[in-house]
Specification:
Helix content is about 70%, strand content about 10%. The protein is α+β, with helices and mostly antiparallel strands and about 110 residues long.
């Protein structure tokens, strides 16, 4: 899968508040579907769809033991989102630095005239 498609999957998964709350919950440690669904006021099939989106984006992974499915964070994909955001931040910081330098040059010219 192309890197931009992977980023699209990750940011799509992160775009929903329910999924972000699930990730926050999983950051405390692995949890079963029942444990993850407990704080949410929605039917289990709807909640499981959120888990499916998270698993398809590979932000989480699951394993099934008997009838119990347990989810945990898969940190590798978070690095991809972090790298994308870091690159955007660096680009903007560079633009602000150049703008700041331009303003300093204008002030210097203005003070000489």
């Amino acid at each position: 899968m192309a890197q931009s498609a992977v980023a699209d999957d990750v940011f799509y998964a992160l775009s929903n508040s329910t999924r972000r709350k699930v990730l926050e919950q999983l950051s405390l440690g692995p949890a079963t579907v029942t444990q993850l669904a407990a704080p949410f006021d929605m039917k289990l099939p709807s909640f499981v769809q959120h888990l499916s989106v998270l698993e398809r984006s590979r932000l989480v992974k699951s394993k099934k033991q008997g009838r119990v499915r347990t989810y945990e964070i898969a940190p590798e994909r978070f690095k991809l989102a972090e790298d994308w955001l870091t690159k955007r931040r660096q680009e903007w910081e560079s633009r602000f630095d150049r703008f700041d330098e331009y303003v300093k040059q204008l002030k210097h010219k203005e003070s000489k005239s």
